[in-house]
Amino acid sequence: MKIQKPIISDLITANQINKSCSDDIKNFTEIFFQLEFTWMKNAYNAFKDIDKYVILLFLINKTFRAYKEHFYTLSFEDLMNNKTIEIEKISIIEIVNELSITKETVRRKLNELNKSGVIKRDKKKISVINPFNNQKPINNILELSKLLTYVSQRLGKMYNLNNLVSKNYYNLIKKNYTLHWHTFLNFQLQYYLRMKKNFGTFENFYIFGTCAVNQSYNLKNSYKINNAVSLNVNNYAKVVTDHTKYKSNGLNPTTISELTNIPRASVIRKLKELLNQKFLVKNKQNLYSIISMRENPNKFLKIGNIFQENQASLRSCLKDLLNLTNI
């Protein structure tokens, strides 16, 4: 059988990805925010404990890495039909170092996962039992495929890469699921570790991110902003925060609770933390939005730097995913 070798010159470059994303940062960011909001909601709903979910995610991705290293790929259906996923031997210290979670917390979360039947521990050996019982990532695959489709369409128009435009990324991800999802999870884990470092807890970032999604929709629906401002990765955060603060409404605690499924009492407590951290502001109507440059230049600069760092990491991930489907 003739083996089709990849044409190295056809691989997508980082510059092409950056150009295609930056030229329409508003729509690109909206799709990305929706992907992350869907991810966070699924993650929280799995255990009502995002730290626990991230530990489980890390364990699964470690096995996906082993599959990749041994040139072994499972489809989504094949993986879903498996009753267990065996994890490579791993120590608590390795999880502590990789996820920046205390040793006591890791031990407690693993014990809780073991007690609830999500994992089975035998010394350093761990198996994940029925991994899709807690979260079937169909919605995550859909949202990721939307983002890949959008970027591929931009690339097709800008660089005449028409072979990308016709691809069904949803089916391609499902067909070579462990390979593609390992690449995505590498980004996702680093993304949330970065967010936890800056916001203190994953739940704080979940609530902050919900406000960000709301503000991105507000920006999209503003005719004046859409036609008067040339958006790019450097000014996007300033435009979106200024616009929401002075020209549209934020979210109240009840709405945030309904959107995130976090109990209202917990939302109120987390909102107070975010106010104290000066990530959010509250107006007289008790509506919360992201702090703007006018209110706190130093804090806003930090938010802007986080946004740009996330964008760079995301675009590298998209490049790798698109090249996986292009080989």
Keywords:
327 residues; mainly alpha; three-stranded antiparallel sheet; 6% strand
Structure description:
The protein has 327 residues and is mainly α. Strand 2 and strand 3 form a beta hairpin. The protein is globular. Helix content is 68%, strand content 6%.
Q: What percent of the residues sit in helical stretches (DSSP H or I)?
A: 55-70%
* Main sheet: strand order: 1-3-2
Structural class: mainly alpha
Strand content: 5-15%
Coarse shape = globular
Order of helices and strands: HHHHEHHEEHHHHHHHHHEEH
Contiguous low-pLDDT stretches (5 residues minimum) are 1-9
Mean pLDDT: 86
The major pleated sheet works out as: 3 strands, antiparallel
CATH topology of the domain at 198-308: Arc Repressor Mutant, subunit A
Number of helices in the DSSP assignment? 16
Compute the separation of the termini in Å: 17 Å
Q: What is the second-level CATH architecture of the domain at 198-308?
A: Orthogonal Bundle
Cα-based radius of gyration, to the nearest Å: 21 Å
**Secondary structure tally: strands:** 5
The CATH first-level class of the domain at 198-308 comes to Mainly Alpha
